[in-house]
C-alpha cells in the first residue's frame, strides 16, 4: 500500500529529483560529489535575502548547480546524461531543483555536521565543498574549477545582499 502511494506521489509532482540523483549515483557518481552540490545549494539558499537583485542571481546559481549534475552525468553514463538533459529541456528552468526540499535537507544536515552554526564564513564553507567536488568528480577538473570560481562570485554577492538586507531591518 505504502509503495503504491509513494509512486503516485512521485508521478503527481512531475519530477522525481531524488530518483534522478540516485540514478546518477548508481551510474558511478561519487556520493560525496552529490552531497557537496547539495551543501552548496543549502549555503546559497540559506543566504537568499529575497530581494529582486538576489532573485536575478539565484537563477544563475541554480543553473550552475544543475550543470554540475549534468556534466557529472555526461562524464559517467550517456543514458543518465540524456535523461537529465531531456528532463531539463522538457520542463521549466531549474528542473533538477524543482523539488528542492530533499536537496536542501541533505545539504543542511551535511553543513551543520561539518560546520556548527556561526563557526565559519560562507566562503570557507563554499571552498571546502568546492574542494570535495574537485576531488570526487569524474568530469574535467579544469572546467569544473573555472565554474566553481564563477559560482563563488555569485554566492559572495548573494551573501553581501543578505547582510545588507539584515542591516536594513535594524
Give the DSSP E fraction (strand runs of 2 or more residues).
under 5%
Low-confidence stretches: 1-13
Listing every helix as H and every strand as E from the N terminus to the C terminus, the arrangement reads HHHHHHHH
Radius of gyration, in Å, reads: 16 Å
Q: What is the domain tally? A: 1
Structural class by helix and strand composition: mainly alpha
Helix amount: over 70%
Shape: globular
What kind of sheet is the major sheet? Answer: none
List the helices and strands and how they pair.
Layout: H1 2-13, H2 17-27, H3 31-46, H4 52-76, H5 78-89, H6 100-114, H7 122-136, H8 141-169
Helix pairs in contact: 3-4, 3-6, 3-7, 4-5, 4-8, 7-8
Your description of this structure?
This protein is mostly helical and 170 residues long. The chain has one domain. Helices cover 79% and strands 0% of the residues. It has 8 helices and no strands. Helix 3 packs antiparallel against helix 4 (52-76) and helix 3 (31-46) packs across helix 6 (100-114). It is globular, with a radius of gyration of 16 Å. It starts with a helix and ends with a helix. Residues 1-13 have low confidence and may be disordered.
Name the descriptors.
170 residues; 0% strand; disordered N terminus
Would you kindly provide a brief summary of this structure?
This protein is mainly alpha-helical. The protein has helices at residues 2-13, 17-27, 31-46, 52-76, 78-89, 100-114, 122-136, 141-169.
Amino acid at each position: 500500500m505504502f509503495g503504491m502511494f509513494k509512486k503516485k506521489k512521485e508521478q503527481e509532482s512531475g519530477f522525481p529529483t531524488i530518483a534522478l540523483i540516485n540514478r546518477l549515483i548508481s551510474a558511478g557518481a561519487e556520493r560525496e560529489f552529490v552531497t557537496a552540490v547539495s551543501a552548496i545549494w543549502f549555503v546559497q539558499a540559506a543566504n537568499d535575502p529575497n530581494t529582486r537583485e538576489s532573485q536575478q542571481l539565484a537563477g544563475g546559481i541554480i543553473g550552475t548547480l544543475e550543470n554540475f549534475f549534468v556534466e557529472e552525468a555526461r562524464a559517467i553514463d550517456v543514458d543518465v546524461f540524456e535523461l537529465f538533459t531531456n528532463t531539463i529541456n522538457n520542463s521549466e528552468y531549474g528542473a533538477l531543483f524543482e523539488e528542492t526540499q530533499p536537496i536542501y535537507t541533505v545539504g543542511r544536515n551535511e553543513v551543520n555536521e561539518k560546520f556548527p552554526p556561526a563557526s565559519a564564513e560562507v566562503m570557507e564553507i563554499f571552498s571546502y565543498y568546492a574542494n570535495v567536488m574537485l576531488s570526487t568528480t569524474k568530469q574535467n577538473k579544469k572546467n569544473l574549477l573555472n565554474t566553481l570560481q564563477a559560482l563563488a562570485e555569485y554566492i559572495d554577492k548573494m551573501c553581501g545582499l543578505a547582510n545588507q538586507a539584515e542591516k536594513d531591518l535594524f
